Amino acid sequence: MTNIIYIRGDATEPIGEGNKLIIHCCNDTPGGVWGAGFVLALSKKWKLPESEYRKWASGNTKINPYALGFIQAVGVEKDIAVVNMIGQHRTGPDENGFPPIRYWAIDECLKKVAVLAKRHKGSVHGPRFGAGLAGAEWDYIECMLQKRLVNQGIPTTIYDFEG
Questions:
Q1: CA 110, 68, 98: angle at the middle one, nearest 5?
Q2: Which residues, 6+ apart, have CB-to-CB distance to 72 below 8 Å?
Q3: Domains: count for the chain
Q4: Closest C-alpha among 90, 135, 130 to residue 110
Q5: Average pLDDT of 105-131?
Q6: Considering the chain, what is the average pLDDT of its residues?
Q7: What domain range includes position 31?
Q8: How does pLDDT run across 11-34, given as a tens digit for each residue?
Q9: Quick one: average pLDDT of 27-50?
Q10: What pLDDT is recorded for position 1?
Q11: Euclidean distance between the first and final Cα of the chain, in Å?
């Protein structure tokens, strides 16, 4: 059985040949909040993922609902798309101190990512999304990646940023 590949590097520079999907976790805040964590690296490299996310969050698009469990794929290069996954509710802990991550929503997003990756014969790449500002336990996310992507034959690489 294959496993997730872990490398040191920059997830905005995915390795390998063919089509590549860069996945990351976004929030469902009305109007959209984009400005901390991995999205800063995305916006530094490409403007389109942020602008499309903001359109989506403000209701100015007819694609998937802007809601937990949904994704938005944004082509940024000939063979690279950034996938905005709505996997966290708002941006900080709730009134009881629970983190914003919603594991069920990440799982739903990953099901949709798998369909997209298979359709375009692509590989999946990303940082350890959800485990930073969203407050996820990486072990849970890792299990979902294994089940929804790797076990379906989709090459999956996670990048640990150097520097």
A1: 100
A2: 52, 53, 56, 63, 64, 83, 84
A3: 1
A4: 130
A5: 97
A6: 95
A7: 5-160
A8: 999 999 999 999 999 999 999 999
A9: 96
A10: 61
A11: 32
153 token code pair: 């034959």
In the structure encoding, which two tokens stand for residue 28, read together? Answer: 């469902």
Q: How would you classify residue 52: left for phi > 0, otherwise alpha for psi between -120 and 50, otherwise beta?
A: alpha
Q: Are strands 80-88 and 122-126 parallel, antiparallel or unpaired?
A: unpaired
Confidence label for 2 from pLDDT (cuts 50, 70 and 90): confident
Amino acid at 32: G
pLDDT at residue 21, as a whole number = 98
Provide the H-helix boundaries in the chain.
38-45, 48-57, 103-119, 138-148
> What CATH number does residue 49 fall under?
3.40.220.10
Alpha helices in 33-137 (DSSP H): 38-45, 48-57, 103-119
Q: Helix 48-57 and helix 38-45: axis angle, to 10°?
A: 120
